Amino acid sequence: MAFYIWEGTKVRLRPINVGDWEKYHLDGMDSEIARLNDAIYGPRTEEGTKEWAASEAEKGWDGHNFRLAIETLGGELVGSISTDKCDLQNGTFSYGLSIFRDHWRKGYASDAIHIVLRYFFNELRFQKVNASIYSFNESSKILHERLGFQEEGRLRNMVYTNGSHHDLLIFGMTREEFLKTD
């Protein structure tokens, strides 16, 4: 069987399709996931989510800043991963990831992250990845430590949610560190 770079041992990454809107809409109604990923925003209509999915499906590929759907090898949509802050001069980038609640703790997040790291480090010559994690997101901290990320910093009281301020943790991994774990 041929090697496909966008496929891992449990998931594959693919473009977001217009028909994915319903699962993303339901996920957007889970305030705990919204808080863990970014922030709690106002409600979005089904039509608004359909428009978002259509917009994501129409985006062209620039090779660096992207959002991809995460699906199981059996084809079930389980979340998304996006890259950002891609600094071509310095070879650094960041990413964000969200797995739908019904699919937590099945290894999908770590597999999706590994696929993106493999692409950026082995194909695009990037040198370092950074991940920002809210201090109350214990599962994400454990996941990144298990993947070999190092905690590099703490920005105190950077996030206000659920009635209190929380720290923002900065985790990082170099290409050399990734190659030791790959």
UniProtKB/TrEMBL annotation:
This is N-acetyltransferase domain-containing protein. PROSITE patterns: GNAT. Residues 11-176 form the N-acetyltransferase domain. Pfam families: Acetyltransf_3. PANTHER family: ACETYLTRANSFERASE, SPERMIDINE N(1)-ACETYLTRANSFERASE. InterPro entries: Acyl_CoA_acyltransferase, GNAT_dom. Gene3D superfamilies: 3.40.630.30.
